[in-house]
Each structure stands twice: as structure tokens, then as C-alpha cells.
Amino acid sequence: LPTSRLTVSPDNPVFTGETVNLKCEIQSYSNWRYEWYKGSTKVSDHYTVNSISIRGVKKSDAGQYTCKGLRDERPNSSQSSSAVYLTVTDLPTSTLTVTPDNPVFTGERVNMNCEIESYSNWKLRNSLTHDGRNDWPYKWRYEWYKSSIEVSERYTVNGNTLTIEQSKTTDAGQYTCKGHINGRSVSSQTSSAVDLSVKDLKPKPELTSDPAGAALTGNTVNLTCRMDPSTGWDFYCTGVELEEGKPVYYTQYSDALWVNVTVSPKAVVTIRPDERVFRGETVTLRCEIKWGGDTEWTYRWEIEGTSNLYRNSADRCTQECSTSGTNNQTHRNDVSWCSTQEVNISSVDHIHSGKYTCTGQKNTQCSQRSDAVTLNVSAEAQAAVRVSPQPWLTEGDSVTLICEVTGSSTGWTFSWFRDDDHLSDSSRGAGGSYTLSPAALQHTGVYTCRAERGRPAYYTKYSNTQPLWITGVSRSVSLVVSPSRSQHFSSDSLSLSCEDQSNSTGWTVRRYTDRNTKNCSKQTGSTCRIVSLSTSDTGVYWCQSESGEKRHPLNITVH
């Protein structure tokens, strides 16, 4: 039997909405009538012409097609053609973009770009995995519409780009585009509409500064030129002037912006109670910045010390306020130091010694760095007492006891003790001095002092002992030591007697040793006997009457 051949145009795949032509060719004999099948189903009656058309093809038209011929003479039929599969796919999408961004301004050049969906994406969407091509095999031509009406010849079209050389307010509206395949009755899907807005008023940029208002010397000031819309512009700080696109479109000049530059204030570090402190004291460091107005500062602290232990204990802060010419080393401080004006160290130790500096920051502006202040931490404070003019005097004279803290003189208040009893008569004390004027016999005794400062209070060690002896103008009582020598030794015996030229009764020997005032351990009448001396017997011994008068003090040292 004669063979049949089925051809389909256009080539597979075809797009929905296209017109598809199927043609059945039989090379021999004539007077054929043709039958068409989709799968095993006949899709048409006998036709004397060898082609049929499917107009507005749909996805449901996809399938395997065959054809064959029939006639009244022998041979009365042909063989069925080989099956041809018709693939029907979705139309590719179109995307319209407009540059520059909306709104545009009269006189600006506007470009509209029509992009057809990529071939690879279209294949994936239509499951054409067998197709090895990556690009469209067709040439596209583009159509542009404004409010569903094809655009006028006033616009310039170059490939997939439509250009409005000098936009007018009449160019405003909704634009769409689509692509056509040359030689085919098909186009892409129409793009979504893009609204073009054309403003008649020439735009004016806004110029701002950060920080606003006064800027401080040594800091950075950022000038920002803003436009709405914000994309596509180049900025020039001549006045300011902006440009966009090619050819260049210029805006109006911005309003002038004044930047006031003032001298940056310098921070000052103060230390309370003093730059010289002692272990265990409470120390407060404060950063002071003299600056007008209600400016609120945040603070940055740095320490250059002799030990890394303390600085590494809370590595939270870094140097955020740096100016040219400063040391950029990061100093490690406690986390609470990051922004507070005051830094409190509740129990200072040697590891806190070092040089402290601070810097103030408000918004993006920084003060000048303070000069370094050195914090020196010494061992426990020791009070020392001295007397002026002398510890031996006659009643009626004046005498001043002076209490000092070794190596420190700032912020101390003083307490005085006589024979280990606290003296509440503060009217006699001024600063570190305690004055007796006139001195009386009852003022005789052993004096010590102690200093304190800060809250909570920090106390020094007690001072050395300072005997003070006031002798009456009458009656002389002597303390007689036996054996009479300058040095005494442990295990020796010692006798001390109070002898009055007129009356030896009524007097006893008292002593002050190791911060305690007490009677002689073994006393008979006015005589004290120590059978076996020890070093703890070292102290001041004197004669004391029943009325409390104290006479003739002597230092006894036992080795």
C-alpha cells in the first residue's frame, strides 16, 4: 500500500492560541480522500484536501496525530502515517520595567524595557525536559501599549527598549508590552501594567548634616543629600546639584545648610578621695565635661595600668571615641564603665593602680580626651602622732598634738584617744590637730589617734603612742626605779616607788603597756614590785594620786 506522511506547522512546540496546520502527503496515485486521527479517534470526516487547521489551539489539543488516504479505485487505501506528537505550551510571560524610578520629571529621558521570560524558565514551567536548548530559537519583535492603545511613532524603539527622549506630562499613564515571534501568529502574554507618573515641577533635593547643629573640632560631619525617589541619582557637593541619566537631567539646587564648628570640650578626670589611696578604700572616678546646654554625654574610660588582671576581668568595652594622633590601644575595663560618668571601686587594690583617662560622646561627636590621672594604691594607711612644742610641760602651758597619715593629706577626719579612751571633746581638734590650752594636770596621759575618710568609712591603723605629761607648780612626786639603770632584761626583778617630799601616802604606780592602762600587778602602798620582767612589761610608768593627778612618767624598756 502507498505510504502516508504527516507534517505539522509550525514546528513543535506550539503555543496556546496559535493556528496549527496538519498536512497529509501520499506520493503515488490520485483522487485521495483523507482521514485524521488523534490517538485512535477520528477527528474529521473525509476531506478531499490534504490539510486541516486547528485555530486557537488549546492544551487539550495536544496528543498523537496520524492520517491516511482512501479512494474508490485500487489501491483503495494508503498506509497510516507515522504518529506525530503535538505539544501545546503556555505562552511565555513578559515583564515591563521603567527607568528611572517613578515619578519622573518633565524633560527627563525614560527607558521602558520589555523582557520575555527566559527560555530555560519557560521550559521548566512547561516540563519540556527533553529540550536541550537554552535560548529562544525565534526572533522576537515588541509591541508597546499605553492604556491598551499602541504607542505613537513619537517614541524611539530599539530592540526590546522603548525610549521617551523628553518626557511630558501627557506621557503619563499605564504602559504594557508583549513580544511577537516573526512569521508566527503568536505573541507572549501581555506584561503587567506599569504606571508612569510625570511631574511638571523640577525636583529639589534636601541637604542634612549628621550631627545636626554644632559640630565639634576633630570629629566627623556627614552631609546627606536626599531625593524622592532616591535611586539613579549622582550627587555633587558644589551647592548641591544632582544629576540623573544620560543625557544628564539636573535638579534644582538644595537649600543652603550652615554647619557650625565649635571647639571640642576637653574631659577632666577627678578621683575621690585622692589620687593616693590605700587598699580597701572606696574610690570614685568622675569624668567632667564643661559644655553649655543640656547635652547628655555618654562616657568611655581607659586605663593604662601595671597589671592585666583587673583589666581582663570584664573585657566589654572598646575604644569608640578615637581622634587622630591618639593611642588606639584598647583598654579593658569593667562593663559598668562603658557609659557612666562615675566609676566606683568598692574595695581598691594594687591591681587598680594605673593611669586613667576618659572621653565623652554625644551622638556621633566626641570630646577631647582628658589628661591621664594616676591612681596610686598603697598598703594599709598608718596614722602618726607628734607633739608641739614638747611632751613635758607645766600646767597652764599650751600644747598641740598633731595627727598625720603617712603619705596622704586629703579628706581625712581624726579621732583622738587618751589612755585608750575616746576623746569626745572635738572642739579642741581642728583638722589633724588637738590643742590643750591651758593644759591641766588631768590632761596627762598617753595619746593616740586614728584617721578616717570616705563613705563607707575607711580607717587607718592606730598611731604610735605619744605620752603627754603636765607637772603641777607645787608638790613634787618622784618615781624611783630600782635597780636604777637605763636597760632592763627579762627575768630580772624591778621595784618602782612613788616618793613625795611631804607625804608618800595616797600615790600608786600606774602603767601603760600594749594599749592598756592598768595598776601595777603587785603593789604594796606606793611601791610596785615585778618579780620577773618580760618584754610585755615595756611601757610608760607614772605616779597617780587618789584624785587622779599624774606625776613623773618614765619609759621602761625590757629586752
From TrEMBL:
Q: Which PROSITE patterns match?
A: IG_LIKE
Protein name, entry field: Ig-like domain-containing protein
Q: What is the lineage of its organism?
A: Eukaryota, Metazoa, Chordata, Craniata, Vertebrata
| Organism, scientific name | Cirrhinus mrigala (Mrigala)
Keyword set includes Signal: yes
Q: Which UniProt keywords apply?
A: Disulfide bond, Signal
Alphabetical list of Pfam families matching this protein: Ig_3
Q: Which residues form a coiled coil?
A: none
Q: Enumerate the SUPFAM superfamilies for this protein.
A: Immunoglobulin
**What are the residue boundaries of the Ig-like domain, all occurrences included?**
2-87, 92-187, 265-374, 395-465
Gene3D superfamilies listed in its UniProt record: Immunoglobulins
